[in-house]
Amino acid sequence: MALTAKQKKFVAEYLVDLNATQAAIRAGYSKKTARSVGQENLTKPDIQRELQAAMSERARRTEITADMVLQRWWAIATADPNEIMHLRRLACRHCYGIGHAYQWRDAAEYEDAVRPAEREAELSDKPPDIPSCEGGFGFNRLSAPNPRCPICSGEGRLDLHLEDTRQLPPQARMLYAGVKQTQAGVEVKLQDQGKALENVARHLGMFRDRVELSGGLDNTSQDVGNLSPEQRRARIDELNRRRGIGTDRAPGS
What we know:
253 residues, mainly alpha, Arc Repressor Mutant, subunit A, 3 domains, two-stranded antiparallel ribbon, two-stranded antiparallel sheet, 4 strands
């Protein structure tokens, strides 16, 4: 049976975001009945065949498979944000200074601190307040905190580090969604890992809370919220049989 103009529009709109309710609204159905109409449309064999044909053609045209999309979602969901940015604790200036006195990076840094003190003394006609170099030189800002440091108590100092996004590992690059300058500083944007994990779960059929198209178009699930435990169990067994999945439930259990 040929599809109506509205049904053809529904098929085209459903392919946009796989949202049956919104597809029904955009296809011209009433907003009040869009949810039920959308769910009903997904169960109609003629519409299922049309959707399957359209999806197959799109996959052939774009060379994008469901496995490719699933793999990308999983990569985003399991990426480590620490590969993009992380909060770390680094040594304070007293951690490794001689006698835990203030440690300078090198002689040049120390001289840069001495000169302003000498100029101020000349202007004020007072003895210069020369910084001490008792702690010595060799401060490395990337060193780990010294647990015996009496100044920072081994906690060091907090440092927010952002990686060079041009050098991110492939999986972290999928998680990275850009950066923008704000009044408070730099804001790093990431992909929504929770949403990516939800997409993986839905793709694998772990959710059964609404009618959805998943994989083959005959693999639809009904709203089970109002079913009794026995009806829900029977529905799950039916879906498993349609997917070729056996059950380990003992008879009568």
